[in-house]
Amino acid sequence: MRRIVAYANARIGNLKDVDLRVDLDSGWMSGVRHIASPNYDARPPGVEADLIVIHGISLPPGEFGGPWIDRLFTNSLPADAHPYFAEIGSLRVSSHVVVARDGAVTQYVGFTERAWHAGKSDFSVGVELEGTDTLPYEPVQYGALAEIVAALCAAYPRLSPDRLVGHNDIAPGRKTDPGPAFDWPSARSLIAAAGTAYGKPLTA
Ligand SMILES: [Zn+2]
Question: Residues of the chain with pLDDT > 70: what percent?
């Protein structure tokens, strides 16, 4: 109980006065930083977002901060800055949204488009939390995630907290993120609380 209160306070502190609203025509969300990734294409005709996939990401692995996620998603990761960047620099990948360690949210691809995460999944929305499988995610990240999920559920009728999975759930044996460090019960409690603010009951 104490932890949930802490998360709720963190959420209010972090996203105070920020109104996350999804423009249904463009698929871009107001109230967050926008960096357009070229790594996207159209969802198949008639296909709308109906699953939210949670990922963990850190660049280089285990390190936080820096411009590297932006650079990866905009195909400008400098190969000479770290040995790992040389390995992954030619990847063409993206995700719809990233939540940094400090709770800051960046959107890279409109939700109406197919971001190139989870093998270019046709029908999903990709949300990356900056982190690793084993280090606890930050309370402000859960707060921001809850706001994002609530806003998405309000915007897209097929989305609900039941339609929230980890990357490990859809690629078992191949992907482990967001990992055991991700606290599902707390995430679900906060999403339910955030849903009320968006006028949509969000209990899974
Ligand atoms: Zn992933």
Answer: 87
pTM: predicted TM-score of the whole model, two decimal places: 0.89
- The pLDDT tens digits of the residues spanning 156-181 come to 989 998 899 999 999 999 999 999 99
Give CA–CA dist 79/81, Å, rounded.
6
Tokens of 21: 């609203």
Cα of 98 vs centre of ligand 1, distance in Å, is 12
Q: Residue 102, Cα to own-chain centre: how many angstroms?
A: 14
**Is residue 109 predicted with pLDDT exceeding 60?**
yes
Q: What is the overall mean pLDDT for the chain?
A: 88
Of 48, 128, 138, 147, which one is the catalytic site residue? 128
Question: Structure tokens of 172?
Answer: 């078992």
CA–centroid distance, 17 to ligand 1, in Å, is 30
Q: What type of residue is 201?
A: P
Query: What separation in Å is there between the alpha carbon of 10 and the centre of ligand 1?
Result: 25
- Structural domains of the chain sorted by starting position, each given as residue range(s) with its CATH number in brackets: 5-197 (3.40.80.10)
Cβ distance 29 to 20 under 8 Å? yes
Q: Which DSSP symbol is given to 138?
A: P
- Give residue 40 CA to ligand 1 midpoint distance, Å: 16
